[in-house]
Automatic annotation (TrEMBL):
Belongs to the LDH2/MDH2 oxidoreductase family. PANTHER family: MALATE DEHYDROGENASE, OXIDOREDUCTASE-RELATED. The keyword Oxidoreductase applies. This is Ldh family oxidoreductase. Gene3D superfamilies: 1.10.1530.10, Hypothetical oxidoreductase yiak, domain 2 (3.30.1370.60). InterPro entries: Mal/L-sulf/L-lact_DH-like_ah (IPR043144), Mal/L-sulf/L-lact_DH-like_NADP (IPR043143), Mal/L-sulfo/L-lacto_DH-like_sf (IPR036111), Malate/L-lactate_DH-like (IPR003767). GO terms for molecular function: oxidoreductase activity. Keywords: Oxidoreductase. It holds the Pfam family Ldh_2.
Length: 361
């Protein structure tokens, strides 16, 4: 088989159907399989390929060995009109997190604000997806989720924190939704794993090897540590995420979270924390949207630094990528396509179109 760095383009609807078929055959319910497939392909559409379709194999492996529970749903441990403490019952992450977000959205619409905590969950995917759900309902959102330890505190040489992402989103008027989704590390661990799978190097400054030396070798980085964004600043944010998502929700945190790729005997027990609120708590929704549109326009039209051709608003690059990939297809490496082909054949899913793509590459 000829190996190439040239990407293979697949229509996102076809890719989502493939992911759905594989996940359904892997044991998920129809709703779980559909939501997970939609979530993963949405990540690819937005250019977050490290959290996209490449996650299907590890999700299936964890289902197969029994450390993730198929056909699980959320249950509310206790609640008030403005809060809910939710048990994910060790279900598949994207489905459980969406249900949690929907509970927060419903409460925020009624009460103006909602604070929810999710425990007993698994890898949740991209947090921006959940922020977008709330923003599309006209709500402001702030979400955190913690991850297995692979990052040291600033000045440390031993892992304690995960890449611990957070996301926020604001509804707008005429502008595109304002959504930030970022890890508290320089880069997510998933991007390094994807580089390793594709036999690619990584930039200096992303990670250190197990001896504490900077490296461009993705495998050495996977075996080593990712670095906090902005040194002490990223470290402080990562600590905040662990407190909110892990300690406050009664979930695991830091080194107590079981690794997605290496621990196949115990559940992860990841936590999620979210605040969702209406934008009319202080000023009218109309005034809020008018002013946020004004702020976005003012920022976008500021004088540029040399070497820059425009200023992007948080989430704007992902929106542009989404529109492009919807029309042109989702680019995947041949390594990823080959892995999906193998998995599909094992589960007796029709992957003839993948075989044809590989043969033409």
């Amino acid at each position: 088989m000829k190996m190439t760095k040239k990407p293979l383009y697949i229509d996102y609807r076809r890719l989502e159907k493939l992911a759905y078929d594989i996940l359904l055959k892997g044991g998920l319910s129809e709703m779980e399989a559909q939501e997970t497939a939609t979530h993963l392909v949405r990540a690819n559409l937005r250019g977050v390929d490290s959290h996209g379709i490449t996650r299907v194999p590890i999700y299936l492996k964890r289902l197969h060995v029994g450390v993730v529970r198929a056909k699980a749903d959320v249950s509310i441990i206790h609640e008030t009109p403005v809060s809910a403490y939710i048990d994910g019952n060790n279900g598949i992450g994207p489905y459980i997190a969406r249900k949690t977000t929907e509970i927060a959205i419903e409460k925020a619409k009624k009460s103006g604000v909602a604070i929810v905590g999710l425990t007993n969950a698994n890898h949740l995917g991209t947090l921006g997806y959940y922020s977008e759900l709330a923003v599309n309902e006209g709500l402001i959102t702030f979400i955190t989720a913690n991850a297995p330890a692979n990052m040291p505190p600033f000045g440390g040489a031993e892992k304690y924190f995960g890449t611990n992402p957070f996301s926020y989103g604001f509804p707008t008027g005429r502008e595109k939704p304002f959504i930030l989704d970022m890890a508290t590390s320089v880069v997510s661990k998933g991007k390094i794993i994807l580089a390793m799978k594709n036999n690619e190097n990584i930039p200096l400054g992303w990670a250190i090897d197990k001896n504490g030396q900077e490296t461009t070798n993705a495998q050495e980085a996977v075996d080593g540590l990712v670095l906090p964004l902005g040194g002490p600043k990223g470290y402080g944010l990562a600590f905040m995420v662990d407190i909110l998502s892990g300690i406050m929700t009664g979930s695991n945190w830091g080194p107590h979270i079981n690794d997605l790729y290496s621990n196949f005997t115990e559940p992860q027990n990841v936590g999620m924390f979210a605040i969702v609120l209406r934008p009319d708590l202080f000023i009218s929704e109309v005034e809020f949207k008018k002013k946020i549109d004004q702020a976005i326009s003012e920022v976008r039209n500021l004088k540029l630094q040399k070497g820059f051709d425009r200023i992007y608003i948080p989430g704007e690059i992902e929106t542009i990528t989404l529109e492009k990939r919807r029309s042109e297809g989702v680019p995947l490496t041949i390594e990823t396509v080959t892995e999906l082909e193998r998995l599909g054949k094992e589960l007796e899913v029709n992957v003839d179109f993948l075989t044809d793509l590989i043969q033409m590459a």
